[in-house]
Amino acid sequence: MKKACTLLFSILSTYFVFSQRVDLDKYNFNASYVELPKMVIDTSFKTYFVEFDASSAILRDLEHLDLQEMVEIEGWRKLSNKGHVKIFTRLEDVFVENVDVKERVEVLKDKNGKETGKRTYYYLQVVYSFAADAKVSDYKGNSVTTLTLANRDERETYNSQEFSSLIEASLYYKFRGLDFTKDIGKRAVRNALNYLGNTMTYNFGYSARTVTDFLWILDSKRHPEYDAHRRAWMTFKQAMFQMNAEESLEEVKRSLVPVIDYYEKIKKNYTSRSKGDRKLRYASCFNLAKIYYYLDDPDSAMRQAGELMINEFDERDGRRLEAIATELKNVFRQSKFNTRHFPLNTENYAAPQTVSVRQ
Question: Which of 132, 139, 192, 311 has its CA 20 to 30 A from that of 151?
Fold first, then answer.
């Protein structure tokens, strides 16, 4: 009888330990928000226009290209003139500095991988230089920023299409050299203006983004919190599905109240220093930090990250979450926004009432 009781106790103890095992899995979700400006600028500025200074030679190379259309700042409205911000862009000529015929050898093999021969292709490799810059100022004549779009000291390389013979590659440049140079000019200007638009968008724009992130979800089926953890995840995912970068977060916040309450309850109910309890608290703090971050509440996200660090399970995650929450708080302070969710009605943006003659 004593042996039977001992055996039963051992079995029950093993079952209890197994049932309390805590395995966590990553579950992905999408979140949408408006990326705010990284540099300080008057938040009432929402329109811009672009002026170009280019030689007649490069303008000939760029025929049929609309330079204005090639510069876009997301979240701003482009005007033909008299915007809040002027982007004065200077494009210098493209200088071809060296032209060589290069070759590429292709090794031919049969279906067994045995080499059966070689085939040689020839192409033109052109080394060229180009220079461009942009000076950005506001409608009052104040300097906003200056950008180097291309530096003549940094040589660029352009490869032509491939030819089957050396003579064909040589004749191509001899008889099509002008078209070839035009292609290089278009490539250089496109790269410069794409860089201009991307940099202005990153520094001063408002771009709607959708990112993929994850929460830690309990994956131990015999744990008493398994079903509740899954329900919280499904509620969270449905709420995030409703999130729109250009809409208020109020509805999403209401939907996430029970999820936040659940994770807070877990932290209070599982307080021991056992590995299982610490993993549950870790998941709760981690998930809450992510939730508050995407709800544009960096202070609450930082508090959860701080709790995660003192939980002694994975301090590195706590530091990372604290860092991104701190960055968001700084962006809010700098941009004078308190949310990343608002409409981008660019078609309604108008030029400033008064435009300085200094422009």
Answer: 139
Which pLDDT band, with edges at 50, 70 and 90, does 20 fall under?
low
Instruction: State the Cα–Cα distance between residues 149 and 154, nearest whole angstrom.
Output: 11
Q: pLDDT at position 291, please?
A: 98
pTM above 0.85, yes or no: no
Q: How many CB atoms lie within 10 A of CB 34?
A: 20
Q: Distance (Å, rounded) from C-alpha 130 to C-alpha 185?
A: 9
Token match 């530091």: residue?
Answer: 319
Mark whether 197 and 125 lie in a shared domain.
yes
Q: What is the pLDDT of residue 311?
A: 76
Sign of the C-alpha dihedral computed for residues 37, 41, 44 and 45 taken in this order: negative
For residue 13, pLDDT beyond 50? no
Full domain range(s) for residue 237: 22-33+208-335
Distances (CA, A) of 152 to 51, 137, 344: 21, 24, 38
Same domain, 67 and 189: yes
How large is the average pLDDT for residues 181-196? 92
The one-letter amino acid at 301: A
